[in-house]
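step 4 of 6: structure.
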Amino acid sequence: MASSAPLLEVKNLKKHFPVTKGLLLQKILGHVKAVDGVDFTITEGETLGLVGESGCGKTTTAKTVLKLETPTEGSVEVYGKNVHLLKGADLKEYRATVQAVFQDPWSSLSPRMRVRDIISEALVANRKVTKEEVDARVAELLSQVGLHPFQAPLFPHEFSGGQRQRIAVASSLASYPKLIMLDEPVSALDVSIRAQIMNMLVDLQQQYNVAYLLVAHNLATVRYMAHKTAVMYLGKIVEHSETEDLFKFPLHPYTNALFSAALPSHPDILTTEIVLQGEVPSPINPPSGCSFHPRCPAALADADLMKRCQGETPVLAEAAPGHEVACHLYTGGATGSVETTGILFKTGLEAEQAALKFKAAQAAGIGATVASAEDASRAVEASRAASKAQVKKEAVSRNETEPAKGNVETTEAQSEDDTIEG
Amino acid sequence: MDATKDTRRTALKVEDLHTYFFNRWGTVKAVDGISFELKEGETLGIVGESGCGKTMTALSLLRLHPQPAAQIIEGKIILDGEDILQIPERDMRNVRGPKISMILQDPQTSLNPVYTVGNQLIETLDRRDDILKSDLRKEAEESLRRVRVAAPERRLSDFPHQMSGGMKQRVIGAIAMAGGPKVIIADEPTTALDVTIQLQYLRLLKDLQAETGMGIIFITHDFGIVARMCDKVAVMYAGRIVEEGPVREIFNNPSHPYTEALIGSVPKMEEKTDRLYQIDGQPPQLYALPVGCRFTNRCQYAKSKCVEEYPRRFSFGENHYASCWRHDDSWDKIPSSTKEEITQMLEA
């Protein structure tokens, strides 16, 4: 199995679901473009977090990697082998290599199977093992996930939610996998139990050197667990980078909006609230060009930029080392073209300043075009001024977005953004 | 919040509320002696894990607890100067809606799928005496407009399935507000919504509160919502409030180990957390509660006194209380020989 190919490589993955009408002579009316051209790789022992709102395609991506869906286009390769073409022994090997833990431990464990059988299923099905080996492995796994080996003959209903999720994790680890798909692994659990499971997953990763593909909508969970993070919007990755980079200086306007919508961990933390207009458009007929343009605060503020965003689809390109973003703001703004891509920021700091500038511009309601890193420093000052003004206002009343001086009318427009378009 | 200047009227006062379930396994003490006060225009967050009794508290406030399985044993719910536990059931219709109402967690299930949205909204508005029958539809449009639903005149004839989750939750908000209540209970209103829609909704609630001056009770397990929305917090554990206080106080100076652990166990969005604090074990079963502090088996500071006796409320400045023996120094005054004796007795 050892080879130079990365553990998981997803190339231009597309999954379109047909929308049909009629019962026998079905007419295809259109396609739901659940996943529409996604690329990423995962190396051993690494966690990739996929974040985005519901309907953005993160679960479909995970399912396709698990071979639960067949891709419309593109490929999923594990150690260089296309998983959708595997047969026989290779397929068994793949199934032992890639495992999954699902969101709801009440429905993901069979109520008729004993814990021992649930845990050993992947092992028995895909590898040749004796009964003694199975028993030893089950006992080992149970104690590793914080349960007792004597609980092996019990049924799932005899456990609480957190314990069930532990069983699910033990079951996914049984066949010594290299990659585990974690689909919202903690969102169905109680708050006090979540930390237990998250810490356990992190510990097990170090112990087994297993890679995770973490699908979650809770950004804090992703920041805690993932090494790299990809933000998805309407079936596409809009930003992809090291987790710390991404959280420190998010570049894409959607990422900024998503982060600003996340709830603070302390009442004194000030956030620039960017309230997006309307809701995520239907993936059956996604908007032309950049699919975020009808809600994008940067494009809405700049008519020239809007024209480009409507007409031309941005591609994922490196804006800072290791920090990819699919947005025209970073490829020359309104006037640039796709050809002018390239590394825009040499260092993390430059990108950070540009991100600050962007935030400041949004707080002031001006469309921002980041052309070069030079004017970023001016922008940083602007953003500081804006946040100072914000501190003052916030002292009076929290939860109000504060514009920089002189641009009051744009914020009013923002508060009306609350209205959902029919 | 400076209490001396706080001249706002009390909208709701709950005193020593007990809601018990009686079943063949014994008595389940879902709500076991809860007291709090809510002023007009104020937002209270009730935080806790599932099964700690927070939803049962909310249902008890509306007298909608599942009867006859659950009974309110004791306590007072004083709403607008009147104890609603004393009024007959048929008069509760004039309380639910005009005085207190509730927004439920799941927008998919709290609207009736076979009636139009307008129909369900008008049903509530029809209960009000100040609206003429002929004006009902206009009034319904107006209430949809208040919750920022675009093109309300068309939306009124929509069925719930034609709306998105965020929109449905707005309609539910409009129905809850239709009677012009003094208090709204929001039971995890945004758990089913996406983050960006959640932000829209929370802002909407804040705006509506500013317009109408109603009190809001937020029932949640998410400290983020508390941080963003609430003026004060009550932390519940196994049927009781273990700590309460102004929101900043709770975050800066959590005085009950459970509150401290709960805040520490949530990963942060703003900074990298190296390791989360984890609360081991599970909450106790509500039908077999210990005599002493209910958090003892999971508490890192637990001592023998915690097992013996339920802790009294200790005060930490303005309106900030926590029930924990850790703040009791009388233990330290006991001679060490007696201490040892007690410890041995307990171990035996």
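step 5 of 6: annotate
 - The mean pLDDT of chain B is 87.
 - The domain at 10-99+181-347 of chain B is CATH 3.40.50.300 (Rossmann fold).
step 6 of 6: archive
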